[in-house]
Every structure is written in structure tokens, then in C-alpha cells.
Amino acid sequence: MSRTPLVIGGKTIEPDGHYTVDIPVAPMYTHDNLSISVQVISGKRPGPVLFVCAAVHGDEINGVEIIRRLLKDPQLKRLKGTLIAIPIVNVYGFINHTRYLPDGRDLNRSFPGSSRGSLTGRIAHTFMQEIVAHCSHGIDLHTGARHRSNFPQIRANLEDEATLAMTEAFGAPLAIDAPIRDGSLRGAAGDMGVPVLLYESCEALRFDEIYIRAGVKGVLNVMRHLGMLRKSRAKALKKPLISRSTHWLRAPESGILRVLVPLGAEVQAGQIIGFIADPLGTSEVDVVADSAGIVIGRTNLPLVYEGDALFHIAEVDRRRKWEVDAFREDYQPDEHELDPEDLSSAPIAD
Questions:
Q1: DSSP type of residue 25
Q2: Which of 61, 246, 296, 299 is least surrounded by CB atoms within 10 angstroms?
Q3: Measured between alpha carbons, how far is 152 from 137 in angstroms, rounded to an integer?
Q4: Which distant-in-sequence residues (6+ apart) come within 8 Å of 59 by Cβ?
Q5: DSSP bridge partners of 52
Q6: Please, what are the averages of pLDDT over each run of 10 residues along the chain (350 residues)?
């Protein structure tokens, strides 16, 4: 594979280098300038160009920590190809703890954007031209919304062979064959021939140690699959359980919700998985699973109105055994991992 020079944010990326590039975006009305900060690591030898990004939604921060740990991994010293890491895409939303940009738009519904559009459209256009246009593959890190958690999962177009192979390499326990949404990053990147995985885990404005560890390992696994890192001698990864249909179970009444099943739980049709009561406890109504599947998302807010989304259930192939406990055990941190000389790499306490 021949190597053509990358130019990102006006900076030429040479082989065997580590660069910090600040890509200017539209200034704020206070005349302060903001930039999207990018870390670029280029190997001595040519190879794939992979982007890994987080905080496209500004309050989805679990991926920011995944990228921080990824950039510290010593395996990157033997990188083949180029890694482009963007910890915070939506800088405006990140600063203000919000999903959206100041113009009220959702960045992940605004790709590929326009150089003459709104603030959100201009950021989307800049990201496509400065990042995606240079890449061969991508991984987009997301979380659930506020007060809503997601179990670790890959969302991708599994009909595409290259994307399916990346999904299987990542090693997440579950993969959703998710349709492309208009204006999404993975949709716009796919139109440019760049396959993109979307890794979902955790809740907005929160960290989860197990889900972070799974994310870091997943990105490294994809890099091995692409030939960017040396193959591991570890046992072969199990292929994810694949779901082609998901739905939200909604509140039958308003009241105070008590949840009876955790994220990742396997549920059966007709199973009571929660109940809703009034504050005085004079009335209660069961929340009943309407189909068998895996709980891949749920609300964390006990106060619900009738019709609110409570549990996100993925229907799966019943021939496969669901091994959620094994997944948690694989990524549970050990006490010996606490290095007093390098506390920045210590597991996050519960």
C-alpha cells in the first residue's frame, strides 16, 4: 500500500510521527476561537488510516476516556498505517454539558454538512473534509442519553462485508444491524466508501470502567484486524450476538418506576421486569416484557410519565447462549492493576 502525504488542518503528517493538530471551527460570538483537537500517530510503514472519535454528542463522554487510554497504549509504537484520534468532536456541547450545538441542531443528523450552512453544518463539513476524507475506516464512540444507559453494543451496517468483519473483530458482546440514519456520520462516511462502526456504552456525562475497558480493547482488536498492529496470541474472540430488530418498552402509566432487571439481562415474553407505583403506594402496575430478548438500554430515572421509554430490548437468535456474566468478568479490573507510579492508568472506582 503506497503512502500519500496526509495534510490535516494545514499540517503535513510525515511517517513515524506523533502530531497534535488543532482544526479551527467557526468562532463563538464572543470572538473566542474554538478548535477541534486531533492526535495523529503515523507509523513507519504505510497501512490503513483509521479515525476514532468521541463526543459527537457533547455530553457523551465515555468515549473521551476510551481515546485517552488508547493513545497511551504502548502497542502504538509499532503502528502500521495512521491513527487519527478525535476525543471531542462537538467542542461546544462538551463545554456546556449538552448533546447539541448552540444553534440547537444535532451534529449526528447534520453530516455531510456544508461550508455555507449553519454552525452545525459547518462543523460537520469540516470534519468530513479534514478527517473522514483521509481515512479508510472509522470508529465512532457514543453513549446513551441523559438518565439513560446503554449496554455495550456495536451498531453498524452488517450487510457490508468490511463493516461486518470489523464488528466481529471488535469483540463487543452484541451487535445491532442498524439502518443508516439520514445525516449520521456513519452514513456520510459510508457514502465516501469509509466503513464506520458505532460503539454504544454507558450514559451521558458518566464513566463506566468495564465499558471503557471493553471499548479500548475493541478498538485495538479492530486495529489488529486491519493489520495496523501485530496479531494477538490470545484466544480467538467470540463473535457477537447479532440483533436485527430492537424496540422500546414504554411506561403503561405515570408514576415511580422500580426496575427489576439490570442492563444486559436476558428477558422472556411475559416476564415482569419492573413496576410503576404512585408515591403513596396505593396503586401499582407491572411493566411486562412483550417479547424475549436482551435489555440493551434502560432509563435510570425513576420518575416516569405514561409513554416514556423504559427498556430497550434487542431480539436475538435464540440458538446462541447469552454469556453476559463472562463478559463482565473478562473486563472486571483486578487489584494488582493499581500502579501507584501511574495513577492516571488506574481503574475508575465505582
A1: -
A2: 246
A3: 20
A4: 93, 94, 97, 98, 99, 146, 204, 205
A5: 85, 139
A6: 78 96 86 90 96 98 98 96 98 96 96 94 96 98 97 97 97 95 96 98 97 97 97 81 96 97 96 95 93 97 97 88 89 79 81
**What is the distance between the alpha carbons of residues 119 and 126, in angstroms, rounded to a whole number?**
11
Q: How far apart are CA 44 and CA 219, in angstroms?
A: 20
Closest C-alpha among 331, 240, 250 to residue 298? 250
Q: What single-letter amino acid sits at 74? A: P
How far is CA 255 from each of CA 159, 247, 273, 297, 350, rounded to the nearest angstrom? 41, 22, 16, 20, 29
Distance from C-alpha of 168 to C-alpha of 154, rounded to nearest angstrom: 9
Distances (CA, A) of 275 to 200, 255, 284, 306: 27, 9, 7, 12
pLDDT digits (tens, 9 = 90+) for 98-121: 999 999 999 999 999 999 999 999
The set of cell numbers assigned to 218 is 475493541
| HEC secondary structure over 78-115 | HCEEEEEEECCCCHHHHHCCCCCCCCCCCHHHCCCCCC
**How many Cα atoms occupy the beta-carbon half-sphere of 178 within 13 Å?**
22
Closest CA to 80 of 137, 162, 164, 15: 15
User: Which of 39, 18, 24 is CA-nearest to residue 84?
Assistant: 39
C-alpha cell of 103? 444553534
